[in-house]
Amino acid sequence: MRIILIFAALITSILVMGAKISVSEPMSNTPSAVDGKKIYKQYCVTCHGIYGDMGASGAANLTISKLKLNERIEVITNGRKAMASFKALLDKEKIKAVAQYTMTLKPE
Ligand code: HEC
User: Fold this and answer.
1) Which residues pair with residue 80 across a beta bridge?
2) Three-state secondary-structure class, residue 40
3) Is the CB of 48 inside a 6 Å radius of any atom of ligand 1?
């Protein structure tokens, strides 16, 4: 009898954990409705490379960039030297999403 009770408790906790995981997962996978990675691949890899460290046309190495999010948004919005402004191509939300994505690029 005791075994059955322990077993039932185990099953219940697994079920509860499973429910929690399935509830929280979609949230953590979609930080924003806009996919910053997709935008990055579309507009930024030509100079910065897929890992952010290619440096074509003198592009800054994003994996070691010390810029904060709002500073990145500023560079992407208005451009800087060889880097073009993206405000005509991307709206504010997209610029923020791609800026956030560049924060995740880290040296290997
Ligand atoms: C035409 C090539 C080119 C493209 C395309 C490009 N960049 Fe850049 N990027 C540069 C260059 C060059 C710099 C360095 C500018 C300077 O020296 O002031 C730079 C700098 C940056 C910086 C500042 C990093 C730092 O630490 O100073 C960020 C952030 C950045 N780019 C993000 C992006 C994102 C996001 C995209 C796509 C939306 C993008 N770039 C597309 C060339 C490019």
Assistant:
1) 83
2) helix
3) yes
